[in-house]
């Protein structure tokens, strides 16, 4: 799973973001994770979604 550290620690170097972090910023976290892990962003997002569903039983 991934998290945004909301409401603190807004993703860096993203123009136009407010100082208060929100859950919608998870897309920036996923993009950065994929870049650092050297994996396809869409594949990472699919794995994150599946892990979240399995964890919460949904």
Summarize the structure.
With 58 residues, this protein is mainly α. Helices cover 48% and strands 0% of the residues. The protein has one domain.
Walk me through what this model shows:
The structure is a single chain. By secondary structure, the protein is mostly helical. The protein has one domain. The chain has 2 helices and no strands.
Largest sheet: none
Mean pLDDT comes to 90
| Low-pLDDT residue spans | none
Rg, Cα atoms, Å? 12 Å
Contiguous helical run count:
2
Apparent shape: flat
Terminal residue distance: 14 Å
Helix amount: 40-55%
Give the H and E element order: HH
Number of strands: 0
Number of domains: 1
Q: How much of the sequence is in beta strands?
A: under 5%
Structural class: mainly alpha
What attributes does this structure have?
single chain; 58 residues; mainly alpha; 2 helices
Topology:
Layout: H1 26-37, H2 41-56
């Amino acid at each position: 799973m991934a998290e945004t550290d909301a409401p603190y620690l807004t993703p860096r170097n993203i123009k136009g973001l407010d100082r208060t972090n929100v859950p919608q910023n998870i897309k920036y976290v996923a993009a950065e994770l994929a870049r650092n892990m050297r994996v396809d962003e869409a594949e990472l997002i699919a794995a994150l979604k599946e892990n979240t569903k399995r964890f919460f039983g949904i």
